[in-house]
Design goal:
The chain is an alpha+beta fold. The protein is built from 27 helices and 24 strands.
């Protein structure tokens, strides 16, 4: 079976691999997108991260090759910094909830590496239960994790998303060497601090007499320093060097170690470039094998005095004597006559101008909504232009920049043209000098794309919201199914004090990934731009289907001083509906005006809404959230919005004449909506104080603002629809106090209240729910037109 075909297989029991991390030196995007990605996606992966040498990736984007169409949207690309060598490992790591698979070898992500060259790749698979294979794959996971920066970005998103859905990856191992049940052994080896791969290999074999050394490498030191290091470490009786007599890069004039012979690769490999890299150290009883990315060079393998300069990755295998010879079909080679080096042909490969490519770095680019964020490299200073192009390389726009004193951090630019998501690449131009082409990461698209393959009840729950056909109480169970799955993916941390005691300082110095709401509001940097595009905390989760559904329903694309102690009694509503004003002469609810639309345009829903069941469900929600002291997350915020939207959509109106009454009675939609809001924002302490927000968010997530907008809109709607009736006077007092408490606790700035997310959400609710309830935010805002009571109150508190 060919290498790409093996990638497409799912885990044992047809379990999908939701994540793929792949590392490479050279990269050809056409080969990646046409050969490799379809196979990886067939295995179930939706979270894909490629780590490639920065210079080679830049060269591939600028050498005239076909430009990638999916880069930055379907998969992320990250280039780890390398101080003085190459980023050279070739790893393919497939992660699933219950299993993992690891490929380590010599194959780059190029057409030749995937389908043309003679490559050596080793495959390891594991389940989530403890075992030596799992420990090796966890070692590879830790290595890949170490290549990804802590700072927020697409690469860190991919890492966090994967770790949340594969808890078996957590933990460390006492030893990289793992003994297998069949008596063999295995280890994942990389450069370890001051110890190179050659020395680590020799340390494992130490104590056994090596009588035969076999080395295959397409590239060598001119003085054979690495080969001499291996020879000195093992002192073998014989050394066999495999090469292709029709074309190789072995230094013909170099002095060979003692007892070295040359032999050809197996005949079936004739016509293929021999890119495989392996070392076999044979003892009387075992073959010790090193397979991976490391050429036989000091930069790759190190020496007695150096750990090397490249990033490399190899697998060590201990097999029975001649086991490696049989696996690699080398018996024919070893039995053949040695090759006369004088009759072979040495190839001269053109060197890659790495320094020149590095000098033309463009920096990194990330797009969110209409905002392009550019992190320029240190070398760029002064003014110039960012030339933006689409996936075909067609120029879309030029944006002027001026870094008078050099780069001091990320720069943000608003893209003025239609459909900014068309932007795929950027080039920096200064005084007629152009940088390498750089790709643009669409981080929101990547987050939306990440969704684990669902099956069974989970798939049905997602389908219920994706269909977008009905909004009824039965969807509540589907919502809870998705929320439970998301919580299983990433359990919420324990709640800690925002200001730790002296004894907790050591722990506080190691920040976690979550902040409580109070901490988040203190540390965030709110962006007041009206056109700013925000991230959603539920992107890439199962619950994102619920958010999309709620936005679809409304046609939307996807503090002040606290209350005094004596005022807290208002939170206890007592026996609902018992007001002094109630009685046979109480003013009845005002009927909304009849619709002027023709009968055929007024689709009447004759179903009767079960108000008793709604009251029971809302009461249960309020009791559950009050009784718990567990931390809350994004799903809990979404649940507040879900219930409010459900109640508002089931309110009595001309299209739903048998809906929930517009009344302050226990089963009226205003009373039920108020209960949902009070349950989340009121109490001692209110549950919202247990809300945990990922530290990566520097501003309020979009889905949170959508919920806050729905809460504020619902409070305005309650007051507007019930005002003017003496019957509801006492209840409206509760509503006004709740509104003050919500405003105080949320602590939103005027800029956040006027943000595009809140304004669009309120406007969308005006157009849909508001039109059926005969209420709009603009009407509620009178006499200060354009501003709701919530906005007026928050603004007045801030101004005072």
């Amino acid at each position: 079976m060919k290498y790409p075909d093996r990638m497409a297989r799912r885990g044992r029991g047809s379990c999908p691999f939701h994540t793929v991390f792949a590392t490479t030196f050279s990269i050809e995007f056409a080969a990646l997108e046409e050969i490799m990605l379809p196979q990886l996606m067939a295995s179930g992966a939706s979270n894909l991260l490629i780590l490639a040498d920065e210079r080679m990736a830049a060269m591939s984007l600028s050498d005239g090759s076909a430009l990638p169409m999916q880069l930055g949207r379907d998969y992320a690309l990250h280039s780890p910094p390398v101080a003085d060598g190459l980023f050279h490992p070739k790893i393919l790591l497939q992660i699933g909830r219950r299993s993992g698979r690891l490929f380590v070898g010599s194959a780059n992500i190029t057409a030749a590496g995937l389908a043309g060259n003679a490559e050596a790749v080793i495959e390891i698979e594991c389940q989530d239960e403890p075992g030596p294979e799992r420990e090796v794959i966890r070692s590879a996971w830790r290595y890949v994790s170490s290549l990804i920066p802590e700072e927020r970005g697409a690469a860190r998103d991919a890492l966090n998303w994967a770790s949340d859905r594969a808890s078996w990856l957590a933990g460390s191992s006492d030893s990289p060497l793992q003994n297998l049940d069949d008596g063999t052994a295995i280890a994942f080896l990389v450069r370890d601090g001051r110890t190179g791969i050659a020395n680590r290999f020799a340390e494992i074999v130490a104590g056994e007499r090596v009588d035969r050394l076999i080395v295959a490498s397409p590239y060598w030191d001119e003085e054979l320093a690495a080969l001499k290091t291996l020879s000195g470490a093992f002192t073998p009786n014989s050394i066999t060097i495999l090469l292709d007599p029709d074309g190789h890069e072995f230094p013909l004039d170099a002095q060979l170690p003692k007892d070295s012979k040359f032999r050809e690769f197996p005949r079936k490999l004739v016509g293929r470039f021999k890119h495989a890299k392996f070392v076999i150290a044979s003892t009387a009883t075992h073959d010790h094998v090193l397979v991976g990315s490391a050429n036989c060079t000091t930069a790759a393998m190190g020496s007695q005095s150096s750990s090397g300069s490249n990033q490399e990755a190899c697998i060590y295998r201990k097999l029975p004597r001649d086991g490696a010879i049989a696996s690699l079909n080398l018996a024919e080679c070893l039995d053949s006559e040695p090759v006369d080096l004088g009759e072979t042909e040495r190839l001269e490969t053109a060197s890659i101008p790495l320094a020149e490519i590095s000098a033309r770095k463009a920096g990194s680019f990330e797009l969110s909504g209409e905002t392009l964020t550019w992190t320029p490299p240190p070398r760029i200073a002064g003014s110039g232009w960012l030339i933006l192009s689409d996936a075909l390389g067609t120029e879309l726009d030029r944006i002027a920049f001026d870094l008078a004193e050099g780069p001091s951090g990320a720069c943000a630019f608003h893209l003025p043209f239609e459909k900014p998501t068309r932007v795929s690449f950027a080039v920096v131009e200064q005084s007629g000098i152009f940088s390498n082409r750089a790709h643009i990461t669409h981080r929101d698209a990547l987050r939306r794309r990440r969704r684990e393959v669902a099956s069974g009840s989970l798939a049905k729950a997602i389908a219920a919201f994706d269909a977008g056909e009905d909004f009824d109480l039965w969807l509540h169970s589907s919502f809870e199914e998705l929320a439970r799955a998301d919580l299983a993916d990433r359990p919420l941390p324990q709640i800690k004090s925002a200001r730790p005691r002296q004894a907790d300082k050591a722990e506080a110095e190691q920040p976690g990934r979550e902040l409580c709401y109070e901490e988040f509001m203190e540390l965030r940097a709110p962006d007041v731009r009206a056109d700013h595009h925000r991230e959603s905390a539920v992107s890439g989760t199962h619950s994102d289907s619920v958010r999309s559904f709620l936005n679809l329903l409304i046609g939307k694309s996807s503090g002040g001083p606290g209350l005094s102690q004596e005022d807290d009694d208002w939170l206890d509503l007592g026996d609902e509906g018992e007001y002094p004003e109630d009685g046979p002469d109480a003013e009845p609810d005002r009927e909304p005006a009849k619709s002027a639309a023709p009968a055929e345009e007024r689709r009447i829903d004759e179903r009767t809404v079960n108000a008793s069941l709604f009251e029971k469900m809302v009461r249960q929600y309020a009791e559950n959230i009050a009784a718990s002291d567990e931390p809350l997350g994004a799903a809990d915020v979404l649940r507040v919005r879900f219930w409010l939207m459900m109640l508002l959509f089931k309110a009595k109106n001309p299209k739903l004449p048998n809906g929930l009454e517009t009344s302050s009675e226990a089963q009226g939609w205003p009373r039920l909506a108020f209960r949902v809001i009070a349950a989340f924002f009121c109490g001692k302490p209110p549950p919202i104080t247990r809300l945990m927000i990922a530290r990566e968010y520097t501003e309020m997530p979009a889905d949170f603002l959508e919920c806050w907008a729905t809460v504020l809109w619902a409070l305005d709607a309650i007051e507007a629809r019930l005002s003017g009736s003496a019957r509801h006077r006492q209840f409206l007092e509760y509503v006004r106090k709740a509104r003050a408490e919500v405003v105080r606790i949320l602590g939103l700035t005027p800029g956040e209240l006027a943000s595009e997310t809140i304004v669009e959400t309120r406007a969308a609710m005006d157009r849909t729910i508001g039109s059926t309830l005969r209420f709009t935010a603009s009407v509620a805002a009178s006499p200060n037109r354009g501003q709701s009571p919530i906005l007026r109150e928050r603004s007045s508190r801030l101004n005072s």
